[in-house]
Design a protein that fits this description.
The structure is a single chain. This protein is 25% helix and 3% strand. A two-stranded antiparallel sheet has the order 1-2.
Amino acid sequence: MSLEAIVWALHYAPDVPPSCLAVLLGLANHAHSDGRGAHPSQERLAHYARKSVRSVRNDLAELQRRGLIRRGDQRHAAFVPLDRRPVVWELAIERRRTVPPAPAPEIAVEAERPEAPFRGSPEQPEAGFRSSSEKAESGFPQQRQRPEADFPTTGSVLPNGRKHASYKPSLTIKEPRARRRPRRSADRHCPRHRGSPAHNCGPCRSEALGGPK
């Protein structure tokens, strides 16, 4: 892998068809710094360019026709078996195109704006005017005097008759409610007939109706 060859393919290679740029970059990835000794297989170039092997062959033929690549020293691939030996290519890195200079950054010139008079504090007059009379003569709009807002204080009565909520803690102590004393069991039974409820005593009803006592 050579950075010089990749830079040449990206920036300085002249008259490169857009469809063949990926194949040229694949060759530059396997070339030396002088552009020689690039021998990747056509299958690997097809993997780089996301193309078929037939399209890679056409791109290599087009690059060779334009003089961007040429056949190099085939001894660089002598260690590969003859039936799988790829073609060794050289990049014509001596050919360079003229790279246009980068445009100078445009500096936006802002139009001069008149400085607005600074509005000072109420104690000090506004900058640019010595007194209020000079301010009125110059046509500068005077600031309208606003009446002081009368904020309701705590405890004042609202129009609906209610009072404002106070931020002070309440001093009213509420006594706890007395618990209701549970009734005793004797209060729930009839005093005359043990075991009958006081509110619904059967013997007492029978006596009231004239039955046996």
